[in-house]
Specification:
Helix content: 40-55%
Number of helices: 3
Strand order of the largest sheet: 1-2-5
Structural class: alpha+beta
CATH class of the largest domain: Few Secondary Structures
CATH superfamily of the largest domain: IHF-like DNA-binding proteins
Order of helices and strands: HHEEEEEH
Low-confidence stretches: none
């Protein structure tokens, strides 16, 4: 499912006009992005959490030439699945 399909599904389920549903979906994602930009951890209890992880610089390899390259430090968004969602997708076995 892509963003436009999510918006369409949300519009149908909530009986909102498509334009309003699109604004709501965009506001939702923009709120998560804004929190991450401000180094906040965003938690959607039972679904997931988002946070920024800092990765230190390291020596990598150019896959084409095999030569060493310096990879700069970076900050990347990190997604961690919530227990409820994980259990819905892959229910725990009852052994």
């Amino acid at each position: 499912m892509n963003k436009s399909q999510l918006t369409q599904s949300f519009a149908e389920a909530s009986k909102l006009k498509l334009k309003l549903a699109e604004k709501v979906v965009n506001l939702f994602f923009d709120s998560i992005i804004d929190g991450l930009k401000h180094d906040e951890r965003v938690e959607l209890r039972g679904f997931s959490s988002f946070q920024i992880k800092d990765y230190p610089p390291y020596q990598g390899r150019n896959p084409k030439s095999g030569g060493a390259i310096a990879v700069k430090a970076k900050r990347m968004p990190f997604f961690k699945v919530g227990k409820d969602l994980k259990d819905l997708v892959d229910p725990p076995s009852s052994n």
